[in-house]
Amino acid sequence: MTNAKDQVLLDKLAHAAREGKISRRSFMHYAAVAGVTSTTATGLWTSSAKAEPKRGGTYRLAQHDGNSSDTHDPGTYITFAMINLAHTYRSYLTQIEPDQSLGGDIATEWSATPDAKEWTFKLTDKASFHSGAKVTANDILASMNHHRGEGNTSAAAALLADVADVVDNGDNSVTFKLNSPNADLPWLMTDYHLAIVPANEDGSANWQSGDGSGPYKLVENEFGVGSRLVRHDGWHGEGAYFDEVEILIINDPNARQTAVITGDVDAASQLENKTLGLLSRNPDIKIDNVASAAAVTMPMHTNAAPFDNPDVRNALKLSVNREELIEKIQFGAATIGNDFHHSPAMPYFPESIEQRPYDPEQAKALLKKAGAEGLTVNLSTADSVTSGAVDAAVLYAEHAKAAGITINVVREANDGYYSDVWLKKPWCMVQWGARPTPDVMYSLAYKDDASWNESFWQNERFNVLLRQGKAELDDAVRAEIYTEMGQIARDDGGTVIPYFPNFVYARRGNLEHTGELAASWPMDGARAAQRWWFA
Amino acid sequence: MGDIARLVGQRLGLGLIILLVISVIIFFMVELLPGDIAQAVLGQGATEENLAALRKEMGLDQPAIVRYLAWLKDAVTFDFGSSIVTKTPVTEIIGERFMNTLFLAAYAAVIAVPVAIVLGVLVALLRNSIFDRVANVATLTSISSPEFFLGYILILYFSVKWGMFPAISSLSEGMSFGELLNRTFLPALTLVLVVVAHMMRMTRAAIINLLASPYIEMARLKGTPPWKVIVRHALPNAWAPIINVVALNLAYLITGVVLVEVVFVYPGIGQALVDAVSKRDFPVVQACCLIFAATFILLNLAADVGAILTNPRLRHPK
């Protein structure tokens, strides 16, 4: 304890902890800022935290999106069921914490050279595989090289394309050498493909056995049906409060919901938005509704008329009533978008950018200025894009009528939508999965030369800032850069972003969490088995 | 009995040809689906290079006809290959699930067939009575509702409201037989409701048809009680159409249950087939479809043999 100011901070922290508004990690972090040693801080946390985790019990989860052709190969993890399972039986270098900050998993600390071209991760010496062996730098190398090099078959190859080499420093640390600066590398390490698996003698990755170093060890597993796991006693991290975890693959939303209502399971990984209202009346069930970094976008081809005129683009952005879309299409389970692809669930989110309203009058004025009054455009969409995609487009068309704009909704075929419509039709609707940082998202779909630059958008200042941000290690400077980029994308970009769909999941009343939930994936960033507990 | 053996032999030979034709159709149908395995496995994040690498690893760089012939060569020796995606032998993927499907079908059949035939005889006996009407309306209602809907209704009452049976029919190792029957009761009941109407109405129709025959008239005139007229005199002649309908419904219980599996989370073969199609995993799709086709062929054969055995006249066609 140092001075009065710090004491006030500590009191506030303790209060926040009691209210359940702060995670243990952030508590420890702020307590350290206030000059408290970690032992004292731990004591403070335990005495003030609202609910204290208890060990024991079998956690049964109804998991959506499982397939019998899922495999243990991290390079081809693709279903939500595998993403969830991977975070339960395997571990990663880093993890996204419930407060959306970046924390360590196998890596305890990480640092970069000033040019952000070399990143060194120091590894914990406590981690072990379920088979007993320690997790060494060698295993990290094998796990990373599984996604690199000629002829590899990993979906994460593009993610690590910039990595020139990964080397073992011999002191329980590894260094990633990059071809170009990337300040986001520690964030990329949370990608679900980059699970740590044991190395073979020849340095290749042994993923086939299903061995891992995660909090739970697989005992029984049938892909597409379910898994049973028991606590890994050598788990290096915090948590793993349950004795056992049972995951049941239930692809039918109705069956998932029934299972959680009847108590056949303790939690369901995804709910249908349309039944949320009814389900929330059930006193035995708690619903978690978490803003995510997934997004629904409507990119216009900015290199072709009429979308080559920013006034036309902005008129279309002004003609959508986002609140009504969220209320009627998503049943409230979405976070409002502001036409730049940076969700509040991502780091460096710029709070200061003004929310664009629904303003048909201003849209009309902009169209008049552009000489495009009575604009008629086609909007391509398909049912498979996102739940209620076609309805959302029709509703948007109604909103736009007030601005004198005619939007013809073109319903495309579900099959082959992303090869025949996306990047081909001048204006269409797209669903994007969550990406960990704004840099990853902007580099993928907004950078001038990106192959997925879905709006064919060219903005010099935006691209200068993008390159600058990628190499910038100072968080404060990066936050400024992403604020300016957000503003540019909002005012000049060719993409309407009406909302970011939320993750919505349910749990029985006796299943507890800290009150904060990681937004990278459903179920607390797919780490509910590690972080939650029974009251 | 020699003629029956010859019939069985002929029909089995024909069945093999049908299976061959079906395997060709399935193979090219899977080929026609948009997208390929590599795209389905790697998803949105795939690059051209690793798609190519994966295709090569899976042998997809070979022409379709070469891949089909390679599969056929192994299939002739009952080696149905391995899943392209998971590399697990097909028999391992399907084996246990097929047993689960057979179990559920048997469970439903053991209840449905006797119930349907007894009900059929009863409504034929009491035809045009209130009992006949009620039984017909009830069974027709259940057959007209989609099976997933029936499943949801049963779950709503038997699990959510009354808590009598579990809503989820997941199986675990070391389950006792009683527990197994309890867990799978609702899906079995759903299937029973779906198939009873068809069999019951065929029994009723076949019997009523015969009641106008002179020999029935004779039986009545000599003073045989009505139930005996039906059970002893009409029923034996009605077996052929009834057996046919029963066989058709048994085949349905094995091949048509994917919706019930999904609703009750039952690990049967239907879900495996759906998963394999979504991944374009040809060997698994092929094996599932051939099992379904063989089921139809064998049950139809059994129905014909059964019909012949119960009616000696059919053995000597004029």
Automatic annotation (TrEMBL), chain B:
Family matches, as PROSITE patterns: ABC_TM1
Membrane topology qualifier: Multi-pass membrane protein
Bilayer-crossing regions: 12-30, 104-125, 137-160, 180-200, 242-264, 284-309
Family: Belongs to the binding-protein-dependent transport system permease family.
Subcellular location: Cell membrane
Primary location class: membrane
Protein name: ABC transporter permease
Domain of life (superkingdom): Bacteria
SUPFAM superfamilies recorded: MetI-like
Upper taxonomic lineage: Bacteria, Pseudomonadati, Pseudomonadota, Alphaproteobacteria, Rhodobacterales
UniProt cross-references to Gene3D superfamilies, sorted A to Z: MetI-like
InterPro entries for this protein: BPD_transp_1_N (IPR045621), MetI-like (IPR000515), MetI-like_sf (IPR035906)
Native source species: Roseovarius phycicola
Domain ABC transmembrane type-1 as annotated: residue spans: 98-303
Keywords: Cell membrane, Membrane, Transmembrane, Transmembrane helix, Transport
